[in-house]
Amino acid sequence: SGGVDSLRAATLLKQQGHDLIALHMRLLPDSPGLCPGTASLRR
After folding, report:
1. Rounded to an integer, what is the distance from CA 9 to the centroid of its chain?
2. Which of 6, 11, 13, 43 pairs as cysteine with 17 (C-beta 3.0–4.6 A)?
3. Could you tell me if 39 and 32 are in contact, meaning their C-beta atoms sit under 8 angstroms apart?
4. Are 31 and 3 in contact (CB under 8 A)?
5. pLDDT at residue 3, as a whole number
6. What whole-number distance in Å separates Cα of residue 40 and Cα of residue 25?
7. If you count DSSP H runs as helices and E runs as strands, how many of each does the chain have, helices first?
8. Residue of 21, 36, 13 whose CA lies nearest to 5
9. b/e string for 7-32 if b means 16 or more Cβ within 10 A?
10. At what angle do helices 3-16 and 18-27 cross, to 10 degrees?
11. Is the entire prediction scored with pTM above 0.70?
């Protein structure tokens, strides 16, 4: 199920999600561990 779909979703997140990630990190500055996925996206 969904190997290509998940890859495509990851690509879209990398292209479009940076602002959302930055906003999320701004909203939770002392709790980055709540969203471990953000660390892998912020490269």
Report:
1. 11
2. 13
3. yes
4. no
5. 76
6. 13
7. 3, 0
8. 13
9. eeeeeeeeeebeeebeeeeeeeeeee
10. 70
11. no
* pLDDT score for 17: 65
With contact defined as beta carbons under 8 Å apart, do 40 and 16 qualify? no
Q: In the chain, what are the domain boundaries?
A: 3-41
* Interatomic CA distance for residues 29 and 35, integer angstroms: 11
Rounded Cα–Cα distance for residues 19 and 31 (Å): 18
pLDDT, tens digit (0-9, with 9 covering 90-100), for 2-43: 678 888 887 877 776 666 767 666 766 555 555 555 555 554
